[in-house]
Amino acid sequence: MVNGIVFSTVLALATLNLAQGDQTRYSVADLREDFSIYRHALEEGHPGLYRYTPKREMDALFDRANESIKSPMTSLEFFRLIAPIQSAVKCGHTRIIPSKADRAQVEKTPLLPFSVVVIENKAFVYRDLTDTPAHPGAEIRSINGVQTPEIVKKVENTMECDADVKSLKPYRLSASPTQSNWRFNTSLLTVLGMAPPYEVDFRDEDGRASHEMVAGFLRSELMTREKSKYPQDNRELEPAELAFADNGKVAVMTIRSFDGPASLEGKLDLKTFYEQSFAQMELKHTERLILDLRGNGGGSDETGMQLLQHLVDKPFTYYADLILNNITFKFTKYGPPKQPRELPKDFAELGADGKYHNLHHPNNGTHDPAKPVFLGRLFVLADGGSFSTTCEFTSNLRYRRKTTFIGEETGGAFYGNNSGAVAQVILPHTGVTFYVPLMEYVMAVSGEPKRRGILPDVPVKRSVEDMLAGRDRGMEVALRLAKQAS
Fold first, then answer.
1. 294, 444, 278, 421: which is closest to 363 by C-alpha?
2. Domains in the chain, ordered, with CATH?
3. What does the angle CA 57 – CA 183 – CA 103 come to, to the nearest 5 degrees?
4. How many C-beta atoms lie closer than 10 Å to residue 197's C-beta?
C-alpha cells in the first residue's frame, strides 16, 4: 500500500530474526517503560486497533503482558512477550521485528538449510541447500524435538494478518518459485529459541522416515547456494505482462505489483499498460480474461482503482472512508531521525465524529469507467500473497461484477485494511521495532464475510510436488475454465 505519507519503508516480508543477539538483561523499570510506549503508540495511532479484536480483549492482553514483567529480560525475550499482542491486532500491516542487535546477529547464526513451504500447518522442503541434497519435497515432521504443527502454531501466533484470513501467514512463511523466504528458518531462533545444529525428522515423498542432525548455513551462504543451484528461482520477471490463448479469445494479464513501472525497463507505467492491453483485447475480440494477481503484495492505491475502471461499465465509489485518529502523534519521537513527527496539516480534516478523514485521496469520490472497457467473462487467480492494494481492487471487483476467483483466499480482509501512512517505532531500551499504520481504509463494498478475504469459487491448493515439477496448476485450471466458458 503506497498512499499519502509513508513514514518508514516497512522491511521485506522475510523478517530478520535471531535467537542469540543482545544478551543485556533490561531492568523491570526499563521494560515497563518500553511496554508503556508500545501500548500507547498503538492506542494513539492505530485507527483499526479494535476493528477485529474488541477493546476489552486488547486491554486484557496489554494488562496481562505488563503484569508478567516481574524480572529482567533480554530484548529478544521482550520481543516474544509483545509479538503475540501485535498479532492480536489482526492487521497485516502492523509489523514487529526484534532489535537491531538481534537482527544483526542472525547473519552470524547458521539457519536451517532448506527453503520451506508451509501448507496446512505442515512444512515441506522446497529447496535442499545442503552439500548432498536428499530431501526435496519431504515433509519436515519435527525440529529439535518439537512437532512441526506446534512450530507453525507458535510462529503464526506472533505474525501479522488481516482479520481471520487463513492464507496470509502460511504465504509469508513460505518460499515460492520466484521468491526466497527465510522467515520460517529465522523464526525457529527468534520465536522458539532453537539453535543449531538442527535435529530434523523427515518423511520423504515415498513415505520413508529419516532422522538427521543438520548443521545449517549462514543466510548469506544459503542465498549464494540458492542462486547457484536454482538460478530459475532468482530470475527477474516483468512487473506486468499480457498474453493471449485460444486464438485471442482468452487473454492472460499478470500484475505482479501495483507499485512502480509496468516493465523492467521502466519506460511503461501501469496506467498506460492497462490502456494498451485492453485496446489489444478489443482489437482481438477477446471474450475472456484471466487476471493473475498471485503474489501481488500491493503498491499504489490509484493504480488498483485505475485497473477497475477498465472492468466496469458504470460509475463507482471505491472508498467509503479513510479514517485517522489524528495527524500529530506523541510516539513518533521514538522513530528514526529522518521520520516526520506529524502528517501534513492538509492530509486529513477533523470530522464531527472526532476522527480525522482523508478527503483528498485520488481514489475518493465517484469514478467513471475508462475506455476500452472489458465486460467479457472474468477469472481472477489469487493467493495469500494477494494483499493490500490488490485486495482493495479485488473487493471492488467482487462487489461490482460477476467474477470467478480461482486459487486461495486473498491475503487481505474484504472490507479494507490499515495502512497508507505508516510510522516506525524503536523502543528506547530494548530496541524492539514495530510499525503503526495510521489510516483505516473502509471499502465501499458489501456482501462478503466480515472477517475474511475473498474465498475462492474454485479452490486450487498449493503443493510442493507441483512446485518441484514446475507445474502451475492454478493457471491450468484458469485456462481450462476460460476456454470452456461461453
1. 444
2. 109-234 (2.30.42.10), 240-484 (3.90.226.10)
3. 90
4. 13
Residue with cell 521485506: 12
pLDDT tens for 142-190 read 999 999 999 999 999 999 999 999 999 999 999 999 888 999 999 999 9
Using only C-alpha atoms, what is the Rg of the chain? 23
Quick one: cell of 450? 466480515
Q: How many Å apart are CA 195 and CA 192, to the nearest integer?
A: 9
434-485 tens-digit pLDDT = 999 999 999 999 999 999 999 999 999 999 999 999 999 999 999 999 999 8
**What are the two backbone dihedrals, phi and then psi, of residue 108, each rounded to the nearest 5 degrees?**
-105, 5
Sign of CA dihedral 169, 175, 176, 179: positive
Structural contact between residues 373 and 311, judged by C-beta atoms closer than 8 angstroms: yes
Question: C-alpha distances in angstroms, 197 versus 124, 147, 200, 217, 431?
Answer: 19, 17, 9, 10, 28
Tell me the per-residue pLDDT of 47-105, one tens digit each, with 9 for 90 and over: 999 999 999 999 999 999 999 999 999 999 999 999 999 999 999 999 999 999 999 99
Q: Is 357 exposed, middle or buried (0-12, 13-18, 19+ CB in 10 A)?
A: middle
Cα–Cα distance measured from residue 131 to residue 297, given in angstroms and rounded to the nearest whole number:
34
CA angle 253, 452, 259 (to 5 degrees): 35
Asked if 215 and 110 touch (Cβ cutoff 8 Å), the reply is yes
Q: Supply angle C-alpha 58, 61, 67, rounded to 5.
A: 140
Phi-psi category of residue 445: left, alpha or beta, with phi > 0 → left and psi -120 to 50 → alpha: beta
Structural contact between residues 213 and 197, judged by C-beta atoms closer than 8 angstroms: yes
Cα–Cα distances in Å, from 484 out to 244, 288, 379, 458, 480? 15, 10, 12, 14, 6
